[in-house]
Design a protein that fits this description.
Shape: elongated
Distance between the termini: 16 Å
Number of helices: 2
Strand content: under 5%
Order of helices and strands: HH
Oligomer: single chain
């Protein structure tokens, strides 16, 4: 009997949740840094949000290129 394949819906919903958490934590950290340093322009929020997006995209692409078995 061949091994049971994971449900694709669960796999991709997990990826979406992982992306949301990664981007959300990066943006939250940027906001906290902007509050701490009292920046008028939200530099840390912008930069860390972009870093979070890049990290989330890396994680998703890594999973698509070399899927786990």
């Amino acid at each position: 009997m061949p091994p049971k394949q994971p449900n694709p819906f669960l796999k991709y919903s997990n990826l979406a949740i992982q992306m949301g958490v990664t981007i959300g934590l990066a943006a939250w950290g940027g906001m906290k840094l902007d509050e701490h340093y009292k920046n008028k322009t939200p530099v840390f929020t912008i930069v860390l949000s972009l870093v979070g997006i890049a990290a989330a995209m890396y994680l998703v692409l890594k999973d698509f290129i070399k899927p786990k078995e």
